[in-house]
Design goal:
It contains 10 helices and 9 strands. The chain has a 4-stranded antiparallel β-sheet, covered by helices on one side. It has a 3-stranded mixed β-sheet with strand order 1-4-5. A hairpin with a 2-residue loop joins β8 and β9. The longest helix is centred in the middle third of the chain and has 37 residues. The two termini are 25 Å apart.
Length: 378
């Protein structure tokens, strides 16, 4: 592994860092408080030309790597987790289309997604199918030149604001995970509607919405790859998604750490700055250690992904560790701020609320530990 960033990576990181500090962070509190989708921030981010970071240049993207994506995701999450989450899901949708779709589907769909003109979302989770994806009951029944899609999905990120959805449904309900298939579904398709919008403790600027399919007709040409390929597509996407979610965790951790560092240098008690107290110093040291370790784990997983090597275990380790670190450091940040940390005048209470979701999405950290155990016990 080369730990030296190239000039392009340094330039992109600095560009996103400035964007995050100037455009995202100042509005993140209001976005959370009012549950506002950060539409203007998303549009400005797309103007930077970064919406198609991983997508090949022939489809309008930048054709860059996961190492660069880690750098971008960390900086976005420092400023606004809702914007980072939107970016993460849109990137995963592009990965699926570029990797598994036909050339016609790629040339039709990727340019608008990679420019940010359209936003993508994934529809996987159901009321009784969370960690156990094979238990999904949404069905896609073939009929003439279409599939009849029936069922519902919950907890869908960007649910009501996305333009294009990759929906996973059973085409063979007797085959468990081997009966899952993937479809491209456009917003506005008859029979496709939105249900409940969830009220969340954090990550409130990212709409989490129920999708309802009431005999929704999906053209057969919108099937991705072939029937029964959906589970493999999901697993491949989740491995990569764990790198981005872990990077979001690192971003939240760094934001909480930076806020703590500024605060202890200003706050005085007992006649001196609280940064002079050993108890505070040890907390900050532990934060710095954990952040450094999380960064290295994420970069290792990204390195393996970029080299097309197997990285399932490394992605789960990185996601699990980095998001646990986000929870630990944001909690310590609230403690360092004391009473001020518990009120909304300071951002650390928001970091603490936001960190929690990162231990749950893209496979809970308990599921990550199951995956890691399976890999090491082979």
């Amino acid at each position: 592994m080369n730990f030296h960033l190239n000039e392009e990576q340094r330039m992109i990181r600095e560009t996103v860092r400035k964007f995050s500090e100037n455009e995202l962070a100042p509005n993140a509190g209001e976005i959370d408080e009012k549950e506002l989708f950060p539409k203007q921030a998303w549009e400005k981010l797309c103007e930077l030309g970064l919406a198609g970071l991983l997508t090949a240049e022939k489809y309008g993207g930048m054709g860059l790597d996961y190492t660069t994506l880690v750098l971008v995701m960390v900086e976005l999450a420092k400023g606004c987790l809702a914007t980072a989450g939107t970016y993460s899901v849109n990137t995963t949708v592009q990965f699926i289309i570029q990797t598994f779709c036909s050339e016609e589907q790629k040339t039709t769909l990727l340019p608008t997604l990679s420019s940010g003109a359209r936003l993508g979302a994934l529809a996987i989770t159901e009321p009784n199918a969370g960690s156990d994806i094979s238990s999904m009951t949404t069905q896609a029944v073939p009929k003439d030149e279409v599939y009849i899609l029936s069922g519902n999905k919950i907890f869908i990120t960007s649910g009501e604001v996305a333009d294009l959805y990759i929906v996973f449904a059973k085409t063979d309900k007797t085959s468990k995970h081997r009966g899952i298939s993937a479809f491209i579904l456009e917003k506005g398709t008859p029979g496709f509607s939105f249900g409940k919008k969830e009220k969340k403790m954090g990550y409130r600027g990212s709409p989490t919405v129920e999708l309802i399919f009431d005999s929704c007709q999906v053209a057969s040409k919108n099937l991705i790859k072939a029937e029964g390929e959906g589970f493999y597509i999901v697993m491949s996407a989740l491995d990569r998604g764990r790198i981005t979610v872990g990077s979001m965790g690192l971003g939240v951790a760094e934001a909480a750490y930076n806020a703590s560092l500024r605060y202890v240098k200003e706050r005085e008690q007992f006649g001196r700055k609280i940064s002079a107290f050993q108890g505070i110093q040890w907390k900050l040291s532990d934060m710095a250690i954990s952040i450094s370790a999380a960064r290295l784990l994420l970069l290792k997983a990204a390195f393996l992904a970029d080299k097309n090597m197997r990285f399932t275990k490394e992605a789960s380790i990185a996601k699990c560790f980095a998001t646990d670190v986000a929870m630990q450091i944001s909690t310590e940040a609230v403690q360092i701020f004391g009473g001020y940390g518990y009120i909304k005048d300071y951002p650390v209470e928001r970091y603490m609320r936001e960190a929690k979701i990162l231990q749950i999405v893209e496979g809970t950290n308990e599921i990550q530990r199951n995956i890691i155990a399976k890999e090491i016990l082979k």
